[in-house]
Amino acid sequence: MKNFIKSIIFCIILVVLLTVSIYFLIPQNNIRKYNFLNILDYEILEEEDNTIDVLFVGDSLVYSSVSPMEIWNNFGFTSFDCSTPAQLTETAHEYIKIAIERQHPKVIFLEANILFRDPAKRTDERKIKDLYDRYSIFDKYHDNWKDYLSYGKRINPTKGYYYINRTNKAKKNNYMEDKKVREKIPDINIEYFNKIIDLCNSNDIQLILFGVPSMKSWTYAKDQKANEIANEYNLTFIDFNVNNMLDIDWENETKDEGSHLNYKGAKKVSQYLGNYLFENNLVENHKEDPSYDDWNKAYNKYERLIEFN
Amino acid sequence: MSFFDLGFAFLFVPIVVLIFIIVPKKVKPLVLLLASYILFFIASKFLIIFLLLSTLSIFIAGKKLNKIDELKTKALEKKDIDKKEIKEKFKKKKRRIVLLVILFNIIFLFIFKYLKFFTININSLLDIFKIDYNFTIIKLVAPIGISYYTLKAISYVVDVYNGKIEADNNFVRLALYLSFFPQILEGPISKYDEVADNIYNATKVTYHNFCFGYQRILFGFFKKLIIVDRLNILVKQVFNNYTSFNGLSIFIGIVSYTMLLYMEFSGTMDVVIGTGEIFGITIPENFRQPFFSKNITDFWSRWHISLGHFFKDYVFYPVSLSKPLKKITTSLRKKFSVRTSSLVAGGIALFCVWFLNGLWHGAGYTYLFFGMYHFLLIFMGNIFEPIIQSICTRLKISRTSKKYYSLQIIKTSILVFIGEMFFRADSVSQGFSMLGRMFTRLFVLSKNEFYRFGLDFYDVILIIVGLLIVLFIGILKEKNISVREEIAKKHVVVRWLIYYLLILSIIILGAYGNSYAPVDPIYADF
Fold first, then answer.
1. How far is it, in rounded angstroms, from Cα A259 to Cα A200?
2. Which of A226, B194, B437, B472 could pair with A112 in a Cys bridge, judged by C-beta atoms 3.0 to 4.6 Å apart?
3. Considering only alpha carbons, which residue of chain B is nearest residue A1?
4. Do B233 and A308 touch (CB under 8 A)?
C-alpha cells in the first residue's frame, strides 16, 4: 500500500512537471490570447496576426502536397497549410472561421477531396488517431527550446506542411480511367461548403477549389462532381489529377504507393500554386519587407530540414 | 518493429504485467508465451509458423536424444557386449539427429537471409563463364529475430547432445526459451541453462523489480533518443557523401557511427534486460563497457557477448577439437614448435569463427570483410604477443601501468572504428576509399565542412553530454558500482529528482518528431 501511494505521488508530480513544461514549450506568441488546446488544434494561431495571405485547407493530401516555404522562397507569398488528417468539411469551416479572426487572407484554396468525406462513416480508429494528433503535444513542440534560445520565440519552419522525402512507388497509374466508381457528396458537407463560401464572401476572400494529385484518394467520379460543384458555385477549380497535369512521376514522387506525394511531388504542386498566385496577381510579395524577417529565419530552418533529413 | 516504439514499453509491457499479476501461478508461463507469440505475430504475421517449426524441431529432437540415451543405458546393462562399440553406435545416432535438426533450422535461415545474396553471386559467376542462364532472384521478408532464435535453437540441441543439459519435456518452457518476447528481436542469444528456468518460474512482479526494470528501460530510451537519433544525421551525411568530406570529418563520421551502433544496440539491450527485470527474470548482459578493452579479443568479450559465447562454444571449440584439426596439429608438431602448431590450429578455428561471424551479420561482402578484418587482427595479435612482450621487457615498459592501458584502449578503439566503417560502408571499395581519404586528407578542411554534418550547436552539445553521461556510468560499472543501487540509497528527494530529470530530458531533449528521422533497429536486421 505504501508503495502504491508513493507511485501515485510520483506520477502526480510527473504530470505537474510535464504540464509546466508544455506551457513553456508550446508557441508563446499567442498563448495569452488563446487556450493552448486551441493552438494544438489550429496550428495557424502560432503565427503573427495579419501575416498570412493564402490558406490551403484540406486533409493529409494538402499537408503532404503544398509547402508554403517553397512558395515563400520562390515568390515571397505568405501562406499556411490549414490541413488536418482526414479533415471533414465541417472542420474545414471551423478552421477557416478561427483563422480569419486573426489573419486576413486574400485567397483560400479548398481541397475538393474533403467534400466527399462522410462524417457519419468516421471510424473509431480515426477518432482515436484524431485524439492522438490533438494531444501529441511533445511530438510537435518538444524541440521549441532551441528556438527560444536562438530567436527568443518559436519559428515554425514548415507552416503546416509535413515533410517526407521517402519514396514508395505506386503500382498502377490509370486511376482516372476507372469510370465505374460512384461518388456522393453528403448533404451535411454541402451545408458546410455553403457556410465556407459565405465566410469567404463576407470577408472578401477569393475561394479556389483544387484537387491534389492522388491515385488512391481521387477518382474520375470525384473529378466530375468537383467540376460540377465549381461550375454551380462559379468557382475556379484547379484540377491536378486530370491528364496528370503536373506530370507527377508516380514511381518517384509518392511516399505511399500513390496515396500522398513526397517532397519531390510537393515541390511541383507548390511551384504551380505559387505561379498561379503570381500570374493572377492575387497576393503581394513580402520577400523584401523587413517586417517579414521571421519568414526568412523560418526558411533557413526549413532548408536545413530538407537538406539533412 | 522497434522496442523504442512507445507502444511496446508503455502499452504492451504494462498490459502483459497486469495480466501476469492477475492470473494464477500455473498460468503465468502461458501468459508470457502468449504475449511473445502475439508480439511476433504483430511484427511478422504468419511467418510465426517458422518459429513454431523451429520450436517443434528442437523439442522432438530433445525427446529423441533422451530416448536414445535411455536405450543406450539399457544396452550397456547387458553382459558380454563391446561397450565401446555400443557407445559409438548410439553416439552416431544422436549425431545424426543433431545434424538433421541443425540443418533443418539453418535451411530457413539460409532461405530468408542468404538466398538472394547467393543467387546474385551465382548469376555473376554464370555471367563470367558466359553461361546464358540466370536464376530468379527471390526477395523474402524474414521472420523477426530469425538470426537469434535459430542460434538459440542450435545451442539447445547441441547442449542436449553433449549432455550439458537434460532435454526439456515441457513444451511451454522450451517454447518460452526460444521466443520470450523481450529477447526475440535482438537477443541476447542466451543459452537454455542461463534463462529457461528463470523465465518459466517467474512468478512475481515486485515493486522493486518494476521500478528497476523501468529505470533500465528509460536509460535505453535516453541512449536512443538523445544520442542515436542525433548521431544518425551526421553519420548519414558522412557515409552518403564521403567524397565531399575530408579526413577529420570522415574520422568524426566513423567514430560517430561506432558510437551510434553501440548506443543503439546497448540501448535496446537496456530495454530488453529491463523488461525481463520487471518480471524478475535475469537476462544475461550483452555488453560490458567495450571501449575499455585492451585489445580486439578483449573487445569481443565485451561487445555482443552472447554472440561471442555462441561462436566460442559451438564453432571454435568443436573445430579446434575436431579430428582433422587434431591430425594437422599432431603432424605440425613433428616439424615445428608446439607454439607454431597451436597457432596454426587455433588460426583455422578462429578463421571459421570470424567467417561465420561476418556472415551472420549479413549477406554481403562488407560483412565478410568485417569478419576477416577481425580475424586478422586477433590472429596477428596472437602471433606478435611474445614479440611485444619481449620489447616491453627490454624497454622496461610496464604493461600494467595506467599509461600503457590508456594507449591500449586508444589503439583498440581506432581499430574498432575502422572495422565498423567497413561494416557500415555500402561496399568494401567504399570502405577503402574512405580510409584513403581519411589518411591523405587528414589536415584538410573545406568551408562549411562541419555545417554539412547537419547538426546544430544544441544537437552537438546534447550528443557530447549524453556520451559523457554514458561514459561516467560505464566507468562506475567498470569499478563494479551499480548506479541504480547507489541512486536507490539516496534520499527520496534526490532520487526522484534524478528520475524526473531522466524522464524530462528524454521527452524534451529527445530527437523525435518532424525534424528527426529515427534509426531503425540495426541489429534486428542481422
1. 30
2. A226
3. B207
4. yes
Q: What is the pLDDT along chain A (309 residues), one digit of tens a residue?
A: 788 899 999 999 999 999 888 888 877 666 656 666 666 778 898 898 999 999 999 999 999 999 999 999 999 999 999 998 889 999 999 999 999 998 999 999 999 999 999 988 877 777 777 777 767 778 888 888 999 899 888 899 999 999 988 899 988 767 888 777 778 899 999 999 999 999 999 999 999 999 999 999 999 999 999 999 999 999 999 999 988 889 999 999 999 999 999 999 999 999 999 999 999 999 999 999 999 999 999 999 999 889 887
Distances (CA, A) of A88 to A45, A109, A189, A211: 20, 15, 8, 15
Average pLDDT over residues B391-414: 92
Distance of CA A280 to the CA centre of its chain: 23
Average pLDDT, chain B: 92
Nearest chain A Cα distance for residue B19, angstroms: 18
For chain B, the structural domain boundaries read 6-203, 209-287+427-526, 294-424
Measure B66 CA to nearest chain A CA, in Å: 48
Q: What is d(CA B310, CA A66) in angstroms, rounded to the nearest whole number?
A: 53
With CB atoms and an 8 Å threshold, state whether B504 touches A18: yes
How many other CB atoms are there within 10 angstroms of residue A172's CB atom? 12
A281 dihedral zone (left: phi>0; alpha: psi -120 to 50; beta) = left
Per-residue pLDDT tens digits for A252-292: 999 999 999 999 999 999 999 999 999 999 999 999 999 99
Nearest to A21 among B504, B510, B513 (CB): B504
Percent of chain A clearing pLDDT 90 (strictly above): 64
Question: Looking up cell 544544441, which residue turns up?
Answer: B458
CA distance A266 to A260: 9
User: How many Å apart are CA B273 and CA B223, to the nearest integer?
Assistant: 15
Looking at the complex, report in whole angstroms how far the Cα of residue A98 sits from the nearest Cα belonging to chain B: 25
Q: Could you tell me the CA-to-CA distances from B46 to A204, B110, B159, B363, B431 in Å, in that order?
A: 58, 19, 30, 24, 38
DSSP A254: B
pLDDT tens per residue across span B75-124: 888 877 788 888 889 999 999 999 999 999 999 999 999 998 889 889 98
Return phi, psi of residue B141, to 5°: -95, 120
Report yes or no for ipTM above 0.85: no
Nearest to A143 among B496, B499, B513 (CB): B513
- Say how far apart CA B28 and CA A306 lie, in whole Å: 50
Question: How close B491 gets to chain A, by Cα (Å)?
Answer: 14
Domain region containing A32: 2-308
Q: Looking at beta carbons, which residues of chain A come within 8 Å of B515?
A: 143, 305, 309
Quick check: helix, strand or coil at residue B457? Answer: helix
Nearest Cα residue in chain B from A144:
B508
- A58 touches A108 (CB < 8 A): no
The amino acid at B489: K
- Report the CATH number at residue A171: 3.40.50.1110
Q: Name the domain count of chain A.
A: 1
A15–B contact, CB cutoff 8 A: no
How far is A60 from A48, CA to CA, in rounded Å? 24
Q: How far apart are CA B468 and CA A196, in angstroms?
A: 56
- Run of H or E residues at A54: strand A54-58
CB proximity A132 to B under 8 Å: no
